[in-house]
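Review this fold:
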Amino acid sequence: MIAFPDEAAGCPLTGIVASYTPRLAAFAAEPGFVAAVDQHAAEIRERLFAQGPELMPRPLRRAELTDYALGFLDALAEVGWDQPVGYDYAVDRLTAICWLVHQNGLLDA
C-alpha cells in the first residue's frame, strides 16, 4: 500500500509533495516529462472542474485535489503499484498532483 504522511488525517498532499517535488527538477532536462506532467495536470483540472458551467477556470480547492489524490492512491494500492526508478503513468500523475499543489499554493498556511 502507498502511504504518505498525513494520509491518516485524510490529506495525502503533504506526502505527495514531499515525495514528488524532487522530480520537478527533471523539468529542466526532460521536456517529454514536462509535457506528460502538463497533460496529466490539465486532465486533473478538467475532471475537477467538469461539473461547472464557467468559461474561466475557478481556483483549485485543496479538498477537491485531496479527494482526487485519495482515490488515485486507492486505485494504485488495488493494483499493487510500486514506484519505478523511472517514469510511468502513475509517477506522471502523482508529479502532476504535486505540481498543482505548488502552482495553487494548496499547502500554504
